[in-house]
Amino acid sequence: MGAGHHHQLYRPGNTVVHRLPPQCKIPAVAAFAVVVVATPREAFWAFGVYAVLLGAVAAVARVPARFMLRRMVVEVPFVLFALALPVIGLGERVEVLGLSLSAEGLWAAWNILAKATLGVMASILLAATTEPRMILLGAQRLRLPPLLVQIAMFMLRYMDVILDEMRRMRVARESRGFVARDVRQLPILAKSAGALFIRSYERGERVHLAMLSRGYTGSMPLMHDVSTPVTSWATAAILPAAALATAVLSWGVS
Amino acid sequence: MTGSPPSLRVSELAYAYPDGTQALFGVDLAIGKGERVALLGPNGAGKTTLVMHLNGILTAGHGSVEVAGLPVRKDTLAEIRRRVGLVFQDPDDQLFMPTVREDVAFGPANLGVRGPELELRVREALDQVGLPDVIDRPPHHLSFGQRRRVAVATVLAMRPEILVLDEPSSNLDPASRRELAEVLRSLDVTVLMVTHDLPYALELCERSLILSGGVIAADGPTRDLLADGDLLAAHRLELPYGFVVHQRPY
């Protein structure tokens, strides 16, 4: 069933960061990201402070640097885009290692790289210390639109089922001599994707029937009515509060 | 038990799909409290269509369905769905929550059960299917046989009047098949088992109904029906190779 190697983002543990309720961690990460984005790009030192703050959270959560780095691969497309900016940017040019680059482009690239990297790191830390289903429970408690939360929940539940179905279809194709060599095989793959879509859609209908049969009326019953202790909010607020203090200082300096 | 209405009574039930295909042509049946009954029939006989009527997913074109005396109508749907526990064929359709605990709790939570009572229901239902240890596991990490039994637990947690199982033995290996049979035998609940697995019906159900061509074609002791080769052949039912059922000598 392909079980066992999903939730690759989550790293089980029992640290303070792991134990914080998800409804506290999600706004903390979001607030941190907003503060980072609101920091002027000239305040190099402030971004250093943010990185140190995240490093401290990672240390407390016992998330090793290598784990973080491996997962930061998602950022690569943004990095490529950022690297292109100085080359294609307009305006004043500067010489760097014999290359003529746009000064404005360099600033823009730095701005994107620094802020995106910090945001990605914060999200990786959230995902590494919170089980995916807990993130969704947190979202539910934060009163995010219930329909969106439910869709995400079903995606989480059925991802493996659908991937497994996809794998079986591939095995069945290849068992009959199919090899995807070049574009001429695309129509076959497209038809497989279509079949997979229809199967998933029909499964969706059957799941809906099963839900109706057990009394579903349109909203998920909230089964754990856990209140959030003030101390959790306070603990979760440390990161965005420290970041905000840094940002305020950086506004003052610039 | 005299005086209490039958767990399930279906009268003159007829149904045509919106595209005009008539699936049921007047089904009559009654299942007493505590009975275990098999509904046999070939593919396309209308078994699934009938099952969909039992908890009001489809509404009768003609005729009526009553569960423990309560008619299936729009205004009784909530109570009907509590009384009729439908176990679907594919447990992946039935188990949609991230953990077994939440999945078993889904039904009773929809009925408004909360807190310790909810936890009690969940544990009780998992005990009944012999799987108390999987409570915190995600459903997709369980074996197929375990998932089928958890699917049974999800409806037991609603304390149904009647358990309706759609092809309960499909895709099970012999050991899982036996384990499920043991679970079903141990339950103190009315059971309607929809299947074309005739030996399984013989093993678990005293009485069987044959649904064929959208009507109940036969109703009697399972052993007698299965011993009647002509009857089976007339309704596209066959015992597995080498399997012989002898009529009980009365």
Automatic annotation (TrEMBL), chain A:
Membrane topology: Multi-pass membrane protein
Superkingdom, natural source: Bacteria
Keywords, in A-Z order: Cell membrane, Membrane, Transmembrane, Transmembrane helix
TM spans (from-to): 43-61, 73-90, 110-130, 230-253
Compartments where located: Cell membrane
Keyword Iron: no
Protein name as annotated: Cobalt ECF transporter T component CbiQ
Source organism of this protein record: Sphaerisporangium flaviroseum
Gene label: cbiQ
From TrEMBL, chain B:
Keywords: ATP-binding, Cell membrane, Membrane, Nucleotide-binding, Translocase, Transport
Matches recorded under InterPro entries: AAA+_ATPase (IPR003593), ABC_transporter-like_ATP-bd (IPR003439), ABC_transporter-like_CS (IPR017871), ABC_transpr_CbiO/EcfA_su (IPR015856), Co_trans_ATP-bd (IPR005876), ECF_ABC_transporter_ATP-bd (IPR050095), P-loop_NTPase (IPR027417)
Signal peptide residues on this chain, from the entry's feature table: none
Domain of life: Bacteria
GO MF annotations in UniProt: ATP binding
NCBIfam families reported for this sequence: cbiO (TIGR01166)
UniProt-listed PANTHER family: ENERGY-COUPLING FACTOR TRANSPORTER ATP-BINDING PROTEIN ECFA1, HEAVY METAL TRANSPORTER
Protein name per UniProt: ABC transporter ATP-binding protein
Lineage, opening ranks: Bacteria, Bacillati, Actinomycetota, Actinomycetes, Streptosporangiales
